Structures are given as C-alpha cells and as structure tokens.
C-alpha cells in the first residue's frame, strides 16, 4: 500500500512538472521488480529544436570543387545534402591515360558515399540532376536519372539555406553542326572508356578482308580537335597506343594509322611558355602527328570533317575513323537558365564576388568551371577609398594617411600588387610619388584628382582565373573554411575594410595560389611550368608529374 501511495505521488509530481526530465526508477512491493517511468517528449522537443537550428547546405556536383568543399567542411551545425548525377569523384587529369589503358578507370574514381562516410558528420547524397535553381524561393528542382526498369525518372525539390553550385561545365561545341552526333568528348570516365572501345573497334574493322586500302586509311585516321592541354595530352597518349602498342596485335594494318590535330589558333598549348609550345610542336612532328594550325571545323559528318582555313578561307574535307572534340568548356543548360533569372544572361559563366557569392544572392555560392570571380575595379570605388583614408576630411592625403589603408586596398584589389610587379615598383608609395611627378619627395599630399591618376591604370592587370582542377579545389576548400568559422568571423571579422560601408568584411577574399601546370607529351616525356618562370621538359618532368598524383 505504501508503494502504491508513493507511485501516485510520483506520478502527480511528474505531471505537474512537465518541463523536468521525467525519468524515475521505482521499487515495487512485488518480487523486487523495477518500474521505469519516463517522458521522452521533452528530449524529442529539445532535439527537434536543435535540428531546426541546423542550416541546410545543398551542394550541386561531385567534381573538384564540390568534393573539396565536402572534404574540408567540419562544422557539424550544418545539414548537408549533395545532389549529382554521378555518385563518385573522378580524378580528371588522368582521363587521357584511361583512354589507352595506362591507368584503369577504377583507379581514378572514389565513391562519394565513401568520402561522406569518412566525414564523421551527417551528409546525405541523392543521385539526380538539378534542372532548375529557384534562388528567390531558396529551392532547387531535381530529376533522377534512373532507368525504366527501376521506375523511370522521378522529380523532387529540395529547400536550402545555403546553396553551393559546383556543377562544372560541358564541352563547348560552338554549335558546330554534327559535333554532338559524331564526335567523342573527354569530360567523364565514361567518355574515356568509350574512346578506348572505339579505338579497338577501328582496328578490328580495318582488319576485315573485304575493305579497300582507302577505307582502312579512313577508319584508322584519328582526329583530335583542339590544341589545349587536354587535346595535346590525349593526342600523345593516343600515339603511344596506336603507334607503339596496338601494331603488335594488328601488324597487318599498322601502316594505315594516322593522327591529326586541328587547332584554330597559331600554336598548340598557347597558355604555356613559348619554350614548351615549341618543344611540343617539334615532338609531335617527330612522332608524325599531323598538326594543322589555323584550321577551324565548320561541320562534322559520320565520315568526314569539314574545315576552313582561318587566313585564306579555303574549305577542305578530312576523312576520319574517330574524332575527339576538345575545344574548351561551355555552360550547362541549368546554369544558363539560372543566369537569365538573375540578370546575367549576357555572361559566359556565373559571376561571383571575391567571396564566391553569386552577385545579388548572399546565400548562393558558385565554384569551379561554372563560375568566375568578377573582381571589383579600383576605379569603381576610388572616391570611397579616398574618403576612407582621409579620416580628417581635409580633402588631401599624405603617406601616413594612406599607409593605414594600403594593406586593405591590396587585399581587396589584388590587381594593385600585380600592377606594381609589372611596373617593377617597390611599393605603392613609389606609385603615388610618381603621380605627383617627384619620386624623391618625402612630404607628399594628394587630392582626389592626383590620387585617381596614380591608380588609374591598375585595373588593366585584372585577370580571370583559368578553368582548372587547381582553381576548383582551392575554391572548395576556401568556402568550407569560411563556413567552418562563420560564427567566429561574424563576431570578429577578419577581412579588409568595407570601403563603401562600415566595419570589415567577415572573411578574407579568395586568393588563388598557382602551383604550376603540366603537359604530358607521350613517350615518357612531360613539360612542366612552375611558379618563378621555371620550365622543365623531358623524362625528369614525367616523374615529377607522377609524383604530383601519387596517393
């Protein structure tokens, strides 16, 4: 009876104090058993509140930018969802090596779920393709790419607080007729595997006894369109395969093999040092790779490529067995539609600020090949910069006033340092002194006109970042670091002064650090161009190339 009264009192107490954690263990009068009373609702409500506090981060893409962001994001206060039509990360610099079997496809991919599992935080993945971004309503619309036997395609929508657009780009066909229907591309693992199968098919087809020699020549004529890094590297890898390896298996047709590289410009590898360009062209000529400079492709049919000479305008036709198209990157349709929504229809790719935010949307970030940083010009803010430095409102600036903001100017506008380097000026003080016509003058005063004149040419050094894996990976890591320290930097901003406002920017702006570039040229030879105007060409650079990608 005492036990019952105790139970009754305990029940009343718990009911009256609903906000308390309601867990009690009560001894009963029968057999020493235990009764556990609990009310988990309080805990559920608490957990629900915590869940509501989590910001929803949606990442579009599993390429270099998106994967780098995922790997570096550590703050568990975010609820992360990844949407991509491919459920793996591909190490794209080695795609040309997959085409000739030097590297197996499985060696350059890592399942995205494996990367997520290592995170130690909750990340959800959805294998689907985003076909519409609704930034005004903070929503994306997606469609699965399932086959018909799995229920076909399914549409769904996701809400977000922060959107990371890292969808990469597609091959740029320049709307050339027949390219999509007849050419191969080299953007995905599946592309590399398809190219390898086609090469083998060409050799098998050419080995049939019913063909004429002219047909064999056409079938074993491999054409590469584009003299950039991807096109050149693929042509080199293809040469190693079809000239050195496959003739051992197909000796009867080895004399019919030919490789042609078409480039609309005057040189291949035009973005590299001239020494590398010259070496690559000479090596290709020694390898009997036919280089046709100034050749613009105007049409591709199932058996011929029509070209136009850039200088003479003369048209010609080139019969081929396989053509690989590598002429740069183009914008994906979903990005094009999004750009129209936000007033960027006249741009080639999404424009972001120096913090990778899409212009006009503070909660949408764009990284990698689908975006470019629209660096703000000094001349757009020249009056605001002058006013910020002129704290006493005298209308004049001396060197002491200017030195207090010079660090913020150089960080906010990186073109200033590039201009000083190009002009071989020691520092910005020398630039200002030159503006007043007296480089040796110590006591310097500038009004707004002279200040504007001093900085009038610095914007000429503004540069767009290249669409490379290096840039994308660094952007992903940068954004993840910003989100990891978001709360801290909200309280203690670390960025440069806001020249058109008050206080400082929350974060330092993104700065790309270039580690060099490589161009494998076949025959165990590679060209390397590293910072500091350091150029290396030959077998030693090949081992440097291998070491960069050693895991």
Order of strands in the sheet with the most strands?
Answer: 9-8-7-4-3-10-21
Q: Please bin the fraction of helical residues.
A: 25-40%
β-sheet strand percentage? 15-25%
Q: Could you say which structural class the secondary elements and strand pairing correspond to? A: alpha/beta
User: Mean pLDDT across all residues, rounded?
Assistant: 88
The count of DSSP E runs of length 2 or more, i.e. the number of strands, is: 27
For the largest beta-sheet, the strand count, sense and barrel status come to:
7 strands, mixed
Report on the architecture of this protein.
The strands form 9 sheets. The chain has a 7-stranded mixed β-sheet. It has a 4-stranded parallel β-sheet with strand order 14-13-12-18. Helix content is 35%, strand content 23%. It has 20 helices and 27 strands. It is globular. It is an alpha/beta fold and 551 residues long. The model is unreliable at 1-46 (pLDDT under 50).
């Amino acid at each position: 009876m005492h036990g019952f009264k105790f139970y009754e009192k305990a029940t009343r107490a718990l009911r009256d104090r609903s906000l308390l954690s309601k867990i009690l263990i009560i001894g009963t009068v029968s057999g020493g058993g235990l009764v556990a009373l609990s009310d988990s609702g309080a805990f559920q409500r608490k957990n629900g509140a915590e869940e509501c506090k989590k910001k929803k981060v949606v990442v579009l893409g599993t390429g270099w930018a998106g994967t780098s962001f995922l790997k570096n994001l550590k703050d568990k206060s975010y609820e992360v969802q990844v949407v991509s039509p491919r459920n793996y990360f591909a190490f794209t610099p080695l795609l040309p090596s997959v085409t000739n079997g030097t590297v197996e496809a499985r060696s350059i991919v890592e399942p995205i779920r494996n990367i997520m599992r290592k995170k130690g935080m909750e990340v959800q993945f959805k294998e689907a393709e985003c076909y519409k971004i609704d930034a005004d309503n903070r929503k994306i619309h997606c469609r699965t790419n399932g086959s018909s036997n799995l229920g076909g395609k399914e549409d769904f929508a996701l809400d977000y607080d922060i959107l990371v657009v890292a969808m990469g780009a597609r091959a740029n066909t320049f709307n050339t007729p027949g390219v999509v229907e007849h050419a191969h591309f080299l953007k995905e693992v599946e592309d590399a595997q398809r190219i390898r199968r086609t090469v083998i098919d060409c050799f098998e087809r050419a080995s049939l006894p019913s063909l004429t020699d002219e047909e064999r020549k056409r079938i074993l004529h491999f054409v590469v369109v584009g003299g950039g890094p991807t096109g050149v590297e693929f042509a080199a890898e293809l040469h190693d395969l079809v000239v050195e390896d496959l003739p051992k298996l197909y000796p009867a047709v080895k004399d019919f093999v030919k490789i042609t590289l078409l480039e609309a410009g005057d040189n291949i590898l035009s973005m590299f040092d001239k020494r590398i360009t010259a070496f690559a062209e000479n090596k290709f000529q020694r390898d009997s790779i036919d280089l046709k400079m100034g050749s613009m492709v105007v049409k591709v049919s199932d058996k011929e490529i029509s070209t136009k000479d850039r200088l003479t305008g003369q048209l010609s036709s080139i019969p081929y067995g396989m053509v690989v198209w590598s002429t740069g990157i183009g914008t994906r349709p979903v990005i094009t539609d999004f750009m129209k929504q936000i007033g960027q229809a006249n741009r080639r790719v999404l424009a972001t600020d120096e913090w990778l935010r899409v212009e006009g949307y503070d909660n949408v970030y764009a990284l990698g090949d689908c975006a470019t940083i629209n660096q703000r010009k000094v001349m757009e803010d020249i009056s605001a910069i002058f006013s910020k430095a002129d704290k006493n409102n005298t209308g004049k600036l001396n060197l002491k006033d200017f030195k207090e903001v010079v660090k913020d100017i150089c960080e906010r506008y990186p073109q200033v340092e590039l201009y000083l380097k190009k002009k071989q000026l020691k520092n910005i003080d020398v630039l200002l002194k030159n503006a007043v016509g007296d480089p040796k003058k110590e006591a310097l005063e500038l009004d707004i006109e002279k200040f504007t004149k001093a900085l009038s040419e610095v914007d000429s050094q503004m540069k767009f970042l290249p669409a490379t894996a290096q840039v994308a990976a660094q952007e992903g890591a940068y954004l993840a670091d910003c989100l990891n320290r978001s709360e801290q930097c909200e309280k203690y901003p670390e960025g440069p002064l806001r020249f058109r406002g008050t206080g400082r920017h929350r974060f330092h702006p993104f700065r790309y650090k270039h580690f060099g570039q490589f161009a494998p040229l076949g025959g165990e030879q590679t060209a390397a161009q590293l910072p500091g105007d350091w150029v290396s060409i030959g077998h030693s650079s090949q081992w440097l190339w291998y070491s960069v990608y050693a895991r």
